[in-house]
Amino acid sequence: MRKVERALTWCQPVASAHAAGRKPIENRKWRPTMPGRGEPLLLGLHAGSRWWRPTCAPTASPDPSGVAFCAERWPGMPDAGTLPVSALLGVVSVCAVVPVSHRALAREPWGLGPWCWCIDRVWTFPEPILHVTGAVSMWTVATEPLRALKARPHDDMSRRWLADLERARKEGERLEQRLSLLAAYHEPTHTFDWSNLRADQGALFGGAP
């Protein structure tokens, strides 16, 4: 079984658009290192606590411009206030990363770039795993609860601190296992066809950047 060791945090409502199978690409300013050997990049799909805006920094509450942008591309989008935050929603499979200028994205309404991460499969949990704190960029699922706990003021010698540390360690391992089992033993909830990229992108499918 291939482990899902890392996750990526998305702002809402973008995270839920991915989970609902409405958004086949992710726009980032940077390009990730792909696993190689033709393997996709598997990432935990994490909804952060902040809200996306098309041209500005995220906000602490739903932004009308971000909600309108997503609703236009996601018919029937639920009310923003019902979307989960600080939650793991599932797993995404990134099969290729291409610049927004690529011809395959010419008619893609979600394409903003500069780098577009092409998602070919999405697995979602029946219910989101709530109260999960993410981090900037990619983060390691098994150790993030430990990192977040250590960042708080504490007394290293207290029994309570040691007990909290052990709980955080077990929680990280449990989250990684749940993500890995979801992708390994369940059919994808949503799939996207990126075969139009395979003819001319070669190394981008599982290749190094």
Describe what this molecule looks like in 3D.
With 209 residues, the chain is an alpha+beta fold. It has one domain. The protein contains 5 helices and 7 strands. Strands 1, 2, 3, 4, 5, 6 and 7 form a 7-stranded mixed β-sheet that branches. Helix 3 runs antiparallel to helix 4. It is globular and about 60 Å long. The model has no long low-confidence stretch (mean pLDDT 90).
**Total number of beta strands:** 7
Largest sheet: 7 strands, mixed
> Terminal Cα separation, in Å?
25 Å
The general outline is globular
**What structural class do the secondary elements suggest?**
alpha+beta
Round the Cα radius of gyration to an integer and report it: 18 Å
Return the domain count: 1
| Percent of residues in β-strands | 25-35%
Mean pLDDT: 90
Poorly predicted regions are none
How many helical elements?
5
Task: Furnish the topology, listing elements before pairings.
Elements: E1 6-12, H1 14-19, E2 25-28, E3 41-51, H2 64-73, E4 87-99, E5 115-130, E6 138-140, H3 144-150, H4 159-185, E7 190-191, H5 195-201
Helix pairs in contact: 3-4
Q: What is the compact description of this entry?
A:
Helix content is 27%, strand content 27%.
Attribute tags:
209 residues, 27% strand, globular
